[in-house]
Amino acid sequence: MTQPTLIRREGAHLRTALHLANRSVPVLPLRAGKVPFGNCSACRNNACGGRPNMKTPGPCACPSPCHAWAAATADLATLTGRPWATAWAQAAAVAYHPGGIGLTVVDLDHADAIAWARRTLPATRTVTTTRGEHWIYQGAMQSTNAVRDGVDIKSTMVYARWLGPGTGTMTALPDTVRALIVKGPSPARPASRTVTVPVPVGGGECPHRVPAYLERGIAMAEQRITQVTIGVHATVYRVFLAVLSAHGRCGCLTETHMARLFAAAQAKGESLRHCTDAWANALTRLGL
Question: Are residues 32 and 24 in contact, defined by beta-carbon separation less than 8 angstroms?
């Protein structure tokens, strides 16, 4: 079957998808309820290994539109081949992977959220949605839901519905948006703590107080967390343990250092509670 025939048969959603793909936008079909098509039998329950930690779009070896956002593609042959064409025939909407093209969508779900954005965020390209607006910025970041009431961040490792090109000039992703995913301390359990134990017995200036030494250690810890692809929770605990083992007995760690490590862990999907528990467990194990 030729591509023009497929386009006529599968309808407007496939035409939209091909239009976007020709501009290198990775797309995927959504079924009713704005959800992706389920994995095929070969990929169900992640039997194929999946792509749960991928930061770039693209299907696994399976030819089906599996694995939600990770299936998004701009490959025309894939989009018009079987069984993708069957999915397009049943699709209720088109989605795209914002992070795959270096974009971030601030999804504003109601009027109060829009009013907050207009007071707080720099103007950028805006797309009207069924309940509110998408504000689209140039630049990718970690995706997080419910950063405040009615506000989600859609960028890497998620999909967003395509609702048209929008209006206005796209601007660079501001620090104001990036800061939305940094969680504050919990009232019941602080997100971080300053280690204030005395310097080692024997006196003398603590070598960790040399800024370059401590900065290098924290930077290496952040990098270790950022680069992990499997076993994130265990890796975060081991990194916290290593940092406290090296720097925890001299009192040189501060809230800023803790916040950096927690932010790196949360960017990999760790919850605030898991970060706090891992930190507390490391302190306990080291007797701090």
Answer: no
Per the CB < 8 A criterion, the answer to whether 17 and 79 are in contact is yes
**Cα 60 from Cα 57, distance rounded (Å):** 10
Distance in angstroms (rounded) separating the CA atoms of residues 107 and 241: 37
In what helix (H) or strand (E) does residue 209 lie, and over which residues does it extend? none
Choose among 89, 119, 93: nearest CA to 6. Answer: 89
Q: Helix 272-285 vs helix 255-267: angle between axes, to the nearest 10 degrees? A: 130
Tell me which H or E stretch contains 20. helix 12-21
Q: How far from 134 is each of 154, 181, 243, CA to CA, in Å?
A: 10, 17, 40
Contact 287, 244 (CB under 8 A): no
What is the Cα–Cα distance from 30 to 32, expressed in whole angstroms? 7
pTM of the complete model: 0.61
**What token pair was written down for 55?**
């930061």
Residue 246 and residue 217: Cα distance in Å, rounded? Answer: 9
How far CA 131 is from CA of 109, 113, 152, 164, 191, in Å, comes to 5, 11, 13, 15, 33
DSSP state of 253: -
pLDDT tens by residue, 72-130? 999 999 999 888 888 998 899 999 999 889 999 999 999 999 999 999 999 999 999 99
